[in-house]
Amino acid sequence: MKVILILLLICGAMPGTSGQGHNTLVVADSRGEYESFFYLADSVIAGEMASFTVAGPIYGRKPLGGLQAFDAESFDRHQASFRLGNHKVVIKTTDFNPDMHYLEYYRRSGYLHKIDGSYFWGIDGKIPRRQISHVQIIIDGQPAKLPLRAYHDIYEPNVCSRTLFGKLRCQMSVFLSEDGQRLYVYMQNGRIPSLYEVTWIFGNGRYLGRVVDFAY
What we know:
216 residues; mainly beta; 2 helices; globular
């Protein structure tokens, strides 16, 4: 009951689809059964993601090396900015305002199961406290768009903070592939039992799709 979109990474595009001419096909699916790492068919992307996701090693994928990690250049409890050369990613969060959303409860149980008509990630059956309010992606100095549909159901985002001893602790990270063709924006959000991870994937400066899994 969590997911709306699916990501099928395949060898070659299918004619007559929005993925024509690209190696990724993003298809709407109300069942939300195929967005997990388990269904990644692109071995390169799966191997690169196995080096930083929780799900990758669980599904037995061998991590591929060579990813370049971005540095956190600024952050607080509500936003984080990451940079690597002329690549930059900024994510900001804000309080969730229930008055700005359509909330659907399961019958008369008081269990919240949809927000704005969609199942959602972050917390089970309750109103979320936080949501993503702004995303900026710069790849090779050019803006890249992360569509709203890619994060509209992503709640309880975690970014960066410092421990009592001053050590930086981030539950968000950004990576560039060794050949510079793929960029991964990774977040680990919520808390157990709703802890989950989401990775947004960009290829050649364009958004390809996302992978979402529980992270424990």
